[in-house]
Amino acid sequence: MGNQLTGIAPSQIFPVEHYLTDVTDYEFDTSLGSTRFFKVARAKYKEGLAVVKVFAIHDPSLPLKYYKDKLEEIKNRLSSSSNCLPFLRSTLSDKAALLFRQYIRNNLYDRISTRPFLNTVEKKWIAFQLLCAINQAHRVKVCHGDIKSENVMVTGWNWVLLTDFASFKPTFLPADNPADFSFFFDTSRRRTCYIAPERFIEGSMRQSETVESSDTSLLDAGSLKRGELTPQMDIFSTGCVIAELFTEGHAPFDLSQLLAYCNGTYSPDTVLNKIEDPSIKALVEHMLQKDPSKRLSAEEYLKQWKTKAFPDVFYSYLKVFLGDFAGIPILPSDEKIARLKRDMGKIIETLSSSDEKQDGCKDNNNGLIIVLSLVTSCLRTLKFCISKLAALEILLMIAHHIPDDLILDRIIPHMVHFISDPFPRVRAEAIRTLSQTLTIVNSVPRSDANIFPEYILPNLANLPQDDIVLVRVAYAENIAVLAETALRFLEMVQLDHTSTQDAQADSVPDPNVQYQASYDDELQNLHGMIQQKVVTLLSDTENIVKQTLLENGITRLCVFFGRQKANDVLLSHMITFLNDKNDWHLRGSFFDSIVGVAAYVGWQSSFILKPLIQQGLCDSEEFVICKALTALTSLIELGLLQKPIILDLASEIVPNLCHPNLWIRQGTAGVIAVIAGNFNIADVHCNLIPLLQPFIKQPIIQVDKEPILLNVLKPPVPRPVYDYILRSSLIESLFDNLQDRQLLRNLCRPGHKPSYSQPDSPGLAQLLRKLQSQGMTEPDEDKLLLLKDIMMKQQQAKSNPNDQPPPSPGPDNPNIPGIINILALEKESPVQKYHADLIKPPELRSDASEKAPRKLKKRSSNIEPAMMNEEWKSMFGTSEPARTSKAPQQPTSPVHPAQDAMATLNAGPKSPGPTSQQGGKSQPTGLSTLGPISMSQLQAAADGIPEKKPLAPVQENRLPPIQTLVATCKLELSRLVQQKREQYVADVTRKTLIEEAAIETKIPPSSWKPKGLLVAHLHEHKAAVNRIQLSHDHMFFATCSSDGTVKVWDTSRLLGKSNTNRSRQTYNRQPGRIKALTFCQSSHSIASASDDGSIHVNRIEAGAPRFSLLHKTNLDIHEEGFAVDITHFDTGSQSVVTYATVQGYLVGWDLRAPGIAWRLRNQSKHGLITSFAVDPHQCWMAVGTSKGAHTCWDLRFQLPISTLHHPTASHVRRISLHPNHPSWIISAVQGNNEVSMWDMETGARQFTLWASPSPPLSQTQTSNHAVHGMYCIPSNEHSPSFLTAGSDQRLRYWSLTNPEHSGIIAGSVNDPPIQPAVTYKRRLIDGTEVIVETYDKHRGATNVGESGRQGTEQVPVGHRNVITDLGVFLISPSSAAVATTSQDGVVKIWK
């Protein structure tokens, strides 16, 4: 075929994509280059990318069918060859012949010059596979014909594929005409030649061959037997490729050199001498022999050069193992990593052991590099987190067995790549693996001197700000190791630079290796980069990150930074960890780490350590105290504390010898033993033993023996006593009383029992009885007094600082830090006020107008005009009088009061003055400002206070008109005062309006108690009534029901003379069951929420009994859920309907915008929201959930402030706010009819109403009844009263001030006709006041509803079903009525 093409010239040239139009399943992607022989393109196929070679047909007489069949035969023969890639498809048309094969990105020629550069083992592995590929082809009688580095494909994991079998190219080429060579073989234009010498023939031979075959060449090309390829030709070409591989891309021949080699005038030894491996050199020389008969077959080369050029492991393990990954089916990357992870132990054992037999050195264990290439080729295409974690583990395993330069070149970049992986677990594991891998490196090439500051640390820069805590924890865990390794790298490079500096002094320096800077500059740069990350981690929002950094290498960081920065950076940040009162783990970690830091900083830190240790010794968590004692022991052993400090600390910790905690006693004994061991005998007997006397049973000498000291200690204070005292709020009074009791015991004669006086405080007496019942004895009282200071500090540390009122300055404590005592300053020197009151003082309206002119007159007479510069004139006015004679001519112009007061007016009594718009009164006369104006005058001027007429009007008439000087700054100040006053009035007005709208003003009198008289029974609803709401004016109330209706009832008609038992209006256009409703916009509208997610806001028409829909919204049931509770508040600028949804959303819906004003999300772990209440001042909101959680939200910052949980995690039924205590909430929960009052600031349960036969505050025995509706009756003088009703169908009245006045107002229909008497008693249980409802065993009274059921009345007095809600409305100023609703749709009105 080739003998007939060189002279054919194409008539028309088309691009390569033109020929792909006939092949529909291949889509053109890009051109890969074209020659006169072939046009090559890359195409997209359904199975991946493919290479398409196009031979344009310009001569139809060519016998292409023979060559097509030949290619099909080669494909079939090589189907089982793992290292051969024949053309997989060929098509023949009138326009062109197309050849198809798989696309491989890199060939050997490109791979030689691509990073990471191939090392010796990889080159041998490629040469070995190339010989295997030749052997596989020759064994099936296939010769390639055009072996060159461009036709040897290398995958990403160094698997070799021999491709582009050229059976259609000419076998013999003329030696005197390079045209055929250029046309068929020099596709790269490099002029390199890989063709065997015997394929070049002289021109006479070529001519005779052409003449003999001219008659048959076009008809039967198969008859040219003389032109067949031989295996020796491929062997020579393979030798050229191997030589190029081992000489870094230098081919041994070009065309002219090969022709000269044929003639014996050229030798390739110059190129072959560059091959360092002698076995490889001998192999290539043998393959490049000119005589074909002397060349061996590929199989023989593989056998003879086994263990010489190619390691034995290539034959026994790698070829078979890696061949499984090259076979079909092609495995995905995740599956490859899973198999490698499973077999990695065997791989390392096989490859490492074979190399160790040769040399036993780690640097020769390079067989794993071939497996490493397979691993790294899969990393960027991994999809699953588990596969990426396994890949990191494999990389770390391989890193232990390969040289350092390969770790830095092959493994580190891939680990850094995983630092930015989307999976947080992978990022965290990549940090750990990276730090462990870098510690393995023991030598750093000069080219990688700056790998940390220029590559590793910049890629880790974003980790301290990572969104996932797990990643930041991993970085904190390993940053000390990274810093230590970076310093070690820097020192290794500096040492290498110093050792080679002299050797390179006389030689020419390598321009590719440049040492960047001095050691000090590099170290300072490294310190700066690490310091920035460490400070960020030490300031992290999550304590676990700080704790991890402390527990993992804080001492290493001290060594890295040096003494000065360890003190300035690390210690200064560590100290702040003790301020975290919520995380005792962090405080404990501080004391674990402080010893190492202090040991490195030195004795200079002793003055800092003392207060830190003291704070740890009085920590609220006993575990932290143990840690502090352990740290103190180590500091004393290291000699970091001086003797005076040790003695002070010893006197503080000795009382811990009677502490109930065994660990604390042992830790204290350890400290004392170490002190005794470090002190001399005199110090021990004079200073230490006297401190121990109150705590030991008998004298001891060997104080430095810890077991002996522990053996002679007195019994500790009982744990219940100790804990109960710490929880008590009367701890100070208790210790005072214990001090008095101890004094009485000391004064009492031996053998006599002292008589103790009863404490005045009932609470203290009860506390003493409680302690004595828990086992407190008189010796325990003495021990408690010894522990007084420690317990007081612990109790103070446990208590919230906000709970204690701040100290107020007074005569006893005039100087308190942070507080300015105005009273004390007033006595020393009068304080002059330089501000104006926001509220006008009444004295300014009378006295100021009289005194001000006289003072000014006296001052102005003594002041002479002075020269003033321009700046002073613009600020304080001019010295010349300003004429304002035109001012009285504008009586109708509006004048600001401050401007009016400061204006210049005619002082004559008969001169007309300007009148104001309000009433036409005369404006005040002006004030002369030649002298300074007092603040009282300024206020008078700002208020517009009229001046009184002078006492001598005749003299005033004779005087010329008074002209006033007005300073610019004073005029501006007067305007500012007036502006602030107007703003203050507006704020007060707005606040008043909000309070009037939010706080219910119509409340029954505190002495009112319902009598239980049923006055109305309303049964219009057809299903359960879910909620009742009263209007602000108590003119009507509204009910919502599961029947889908909202009804409005007129209170005057229900209780008036008309006695109409019908609702005023009904709204039934909202689908679903109406679960909640509220009045909004001054009771003119009703907002109702349904379980289908809709919320309707309807306006109540004043005249006609109908509703008009104002607003409507539909919630997303799947995302938000329907509203479970709803309320309304008005901020002045916003009318906000607030609702809570099933999915935990708290949403503020502004009816005036309209739109969502704010949206909050309660944590789902707390349970479903069941009820909420909003503070009247719109500052905070309380939310109750189904799991007993009560969460307080700050509506200003929209953040949760605190969360408290019910001890039994009971379902919260209803929440309201306490009228007297701003931070208290009233919560009704499921079980025992419990209603509790909680302090959201302290989390304490202050008061509880308990109507259950179960023991009060019992957490195990509960009844199923719960309060569903409650109403609080506030009282200014006493505690409020309550009305409650719920599942037991009873209406109760609770008096917190006088529990005996409490009672059941209305019983249930299901109650027996005769019931025992009910009594209510107050009890104190665990610090909580409880009013308990109890039933007498003997009959004491009839049922409340008994008299109502006597007679012929058909309507029952009590409810038959669960009471769902209740409301109270005023009938008259002195009486009120109660409305209750139930699940059977009944509404009852009671008096």
From TrEMBL:
Ranges annotated as biased composition (Polar residues): 913-928
Q: Which GO terms describe its biological process?
A: late endosome to vacuole transport; macroautophagy; protein targeting to vacuole
UniProt subcellular location? Cytoplasmic vesicle, Autophagosome
The enzyme's main class, written as a single word, is transferase
Bias kind Pro residues: ranges: 803-814
Q: Which domain of life is it from?
A: Eukaryota
Q: Where is it chiefly localized?
A: cytoplasm
Q: State the PROSITE patterns in the record.
A: PROTEIN_KINASE_DOM (PS50011), PROTEIN_KINASE_ST (PS00108), WD_REPEATS_2 (PS50082), WD_REPEATS_REGION (PS50294)
Which CDD domains does its entry note? STKc_Vps15
Q: What is this protein called?
A: non-specific serine/threonine protein kinase
Name the lineage: Eukaryota, Metazoa, Echinodermata, Eleutherozoa, Asterozoa
